[in-house]
Amino acid sequence: MDNMESKQKWTQEEVVALYNKPLMELLYEAATTHRKYHDPNKVQVSTLISIKTGGCPEDCAYCPQAARYHTHVKAESLMSVEQVKQQALAAKARGSSRICMGAAWRNVKDGHEFDRVLDMVRTLNKLDIEVCCTLGMLTENQAQRLSEAGLYAYNHNLDSSADYYPEIISTRSYDDRLQTIENVRKTNITVCSGGIIGMGETIADRAKMLITLASLIPQPESVPINALVPVMGTPMEAMDTASIWEMVRMVATARILLPKTQVRLSAGRNYMSKEGQALCFFAGANSIFSGDKLLTTPNPDSNEDLDLFKTLGLVTQQPFEKKSQPQTVTKEMAIYHDLGERPKWSRPEHTVVRNSAKQQKKE
Ligand code: SF4
Question: How many CB atoms lie within 10 A of CB 221?
Answer without folding.
Answer: 18
